[in-house]
Amino acid sequence: MSYCTHMDTNLAVQTAEEVRKAVALSGRTGQSISDETGIPYSTWNRKVKGRTEFSLTELYLIAEALGVTPYELIPSSFKLEQAAS
Hints:
The protein has about 80 residues and is an all-alpha fold. About 60% of the residues lie in helices and about 0% in strands.
């Protein structure tokens, strides 16, 4: 497995984890998010399992449906550490 493929998979898994957490906190179902965003449910399932990556557009639509910012759906490795005050 090449480095890029491994990293892509790892990011897909990390993003899927963030999306699953946000959905769980919302009390919504994957089916309801799929219906609202227009992401086919079979595609939704594949993506929330980390098998394929979410597009930026999909993350935006999911965030809108959940009432959160897209920032909350990205892996922590993309988030800036806030300096301790």
